[in-house]
Amino acid sequence: MDVKVKILRYNPEVLDESEWKTYSVTLLPGDRVLDALHKIKWEQDGTLTFRRSCAHGVCGSDAMRINGRNRLACKTLIKDLNPDKEITVEPIKGLPVLKDLVVDMEPFFDAYRSIMPFLVTSGHEPTRERIQSQADRERFDDTTKCILCAACTTSCPVFWSDGQYFGPQAIVGAHRFIFDSRDEGTEQRLEILNDKEGVWRCRTTFNCTEACPRGIEVTKAIQEVKRALIFRRV
Amino acid sequence: MQRHQYDVVIVGAGGAGMRAALESSKRTRTAVLTKLYPTRSHTGAAQGGMCAALANVEEDNWEWHTFDTVKGGDFLVDQDAAEVMCREAVDAVLDLEKMGLPFNRTAEGKIDQRFFGGHTRNHGEAVVRRSCFAADRTGHMILQTLYQQCIKQNVEFFNEFYVLDLLMVGGRATGVVAYELATGELHIFSAKSIVFASGGFGKVFRTTSNAHTLTGDGMGIVWRKGLPLEDMEFFQFHPTGLAGLGVLLSEAARGEGGILRNKDNERFMERYAPTVKDLAPRDMVARAMANEVREGRGCGPDGAYVMLDLTHLEPAHIDAKLPDITEFARTYLGVEPYTEQIPVFPTAHYAMGGIPTNIQGEALANNDDVIPGLYAAGEVACVSVHGANRLGTNSLLDINVFGRRAGIAAAEYAAGVDFEELPPEPEAFVVDLIEGMRSAEGTERVAAIRTDLQATMDINAQVYRTEGSLKQALTDIEGLKQRFAQVSVQDKGKRFNTDLLEAVELGFLLDLAEVLVVSALARKESRGGHFREDYDKRDDVNFMRHTMAYRTIDAEGNVNIRLDYKPVVQTRYKPMERKY
């Protein structure tokens, strides 16, 4: 079937401003939006630029705004988008656009790196593995699924208007360790998130939960971190 | 152009690269260059687990694991390397746990283990639970955990830096030339040690579980230097790719009880591997599936695939152990695995061959001599622990064991030598390559050539091969190389020029496809992942040896491939017939 794909193009080497361009592509209902972008790039316009790698939703390269919602292009099928209408594709919001659908990921990774996203322990290491009950392991399972695609952070209205805010992903990244029974860095991590640009900026709009391509309950994770801060225990 | 100097430069930031970086950066000044972001690397797509004889749930020991690895590799495995890998596997898993990896747990809180293809107790008696796992996203958790440790250790990354050339002076590796994707600028990295950990080249095939970015750049770069590539004819086809798409469905699906069925609903693996059935090694299962389809017992309107049946498993069990792969089936095929069988067919998955190394990760210039300063680990390398067919989970093990070893060896070598003067105009080759490609005015398009390459490889060099099919593939590749000489790109800019880089990647793919096919033509036997219908038996008399392929240039300037061979290291296991 013939599908119209409208893409927000930007290349400062050519033009200072971004502009919409519409392409007509022949696709199958089961094709992904990523397939549409590839067909355009490979058959019509080689200058169209986007990131992608695994093409099945695990590497987190191709988060973009598709029909106004943050999604992974490789996990969004054409048939799920009402292909009778034009499909719009834009870069994720709140991070500087570098070219077409490619944004500067550094501010996003900076936020992640700032919340100490690694296991903190003290004392001697055991000779074998640390023991962790199945229930304790289950406690933080949801937030281990994160692929750092930035779909959540760049769907957050607070992040759009306040570039200093850590954003949902960094809080998810902290949650994964705060609720890990093996970790001893909770106090420090909570202090970082207690910052005025930390967890309290969240307005519970649930955009992030809706945007997450891994189905993580992002807003719930943020609420759990807030509660941990109030009661100072996890 | 910018210049940098580091004691150790690591090319690639997947599991092997970051595991190497954790060792190397503790000891000396280290840079990691990746054409992606570290967390986008394809290690993250690995699902089922990482085997180690922890014996947490039943009796096991690393010697059994070694035997399985050697037998699984159809006795082409270098047994000294397999012993190292399986012995160090236990610590490799425990190290990851201490780094924070969230393994699934047993009722006692220990690391849980499950069945995996080809892993057996006591030399093939029965299947054994050896695979340590985190649901069906073990690779994702390894990649995340290693990246988290790199953050903790302040490892220096150069993200979206595309290495395009290796600099050599007097036979020693002395640096690399990288292209910065964001700006188009070239960077010269001078280094005492260089570790290639840049992954495989699955994109020579159309149906593949591999990422778009797995274009064999590391192998392609050393190949163009006249350095050898080992056992390139051995490519693994994973049995359970989503039909038509190639997206991987972990072997863990069968480890957890999943069954393969043909159109008569028959559990056909009982005929091919009576003891371990659906948990036979991948090469045997993939061939069995292809055979069912060829003999008319395939499913679907064209009889083009078989079915993976999970419907007898409890939905709660599926959700706990196989959440991601069942979601792939729902997302991409609209199939509900609780109640419906999933269409599957073999998908090109893993290169057993690559840059030859010894067990320290030192790259080899020939059968005997190492290349000072050059190391390789992971899928780009050939140690060889996988021989003719890799066992499931042994790739995640390989990257951790040999990534670690290569990182240590590279740092120790760097501590004992001085920087070498770089050759004059070290960037010349890359400038020619890039600017030649950017300014070319030909009429051929990258995508069309790549599509044709992948088509001929899928038809002629997949699960079943013959002299005729391989010769056809070779003829096709030669034609495609001529077309590639006429290729041009549309994007002439500097900034994020992925159009240009796809052309460069296609150059690597064409080279590597040719090496694969030439190596496969010469191997007139069937062993592991390389199956020749015209020579359908293993031939230990003539072919119990590794292929070593070299790029040569004759007096007229023609590029040729020369094949040599290297003995297999055998320690305790004598070749036997491979039955399961």
Unreliable stretches of chain A (pLDDT < 50, length at least 5) are none
Structural class of chain B: alpha/beta
Largest interface between protein chains, with number of residues from each side: A-B, 60 and 59 residues
Residue-averaged pLDDT of chain A, rounded? 96
| CATH topology descriptor of the domain at 428-540 in chain B | Methane Monooxygenase Hydroxylase, Chain G, domain 1
Element-by-element helix/strand order of chain A: EEHEEEEEHHHHHHH
Supply the helix-strand structural class of chain A.
alpha+beta
CATH superfamily of the domain at 428-540 in chain B: Fumarate reductase/succinate dehydrogenase flavoprotein-like, C-terminal domain
End-to-end C-alpha gap of chain B: 57 Å
Radius of gyration of chain A: 20 Å
CATH superfamily of the largest domain in chain A: Alpha-helical ferredoxin
Strand order of the largest sheet of chain A: 2-1-5-3-4
CATH class (first level) name of the largest domain in chain A: Mainly Alpha
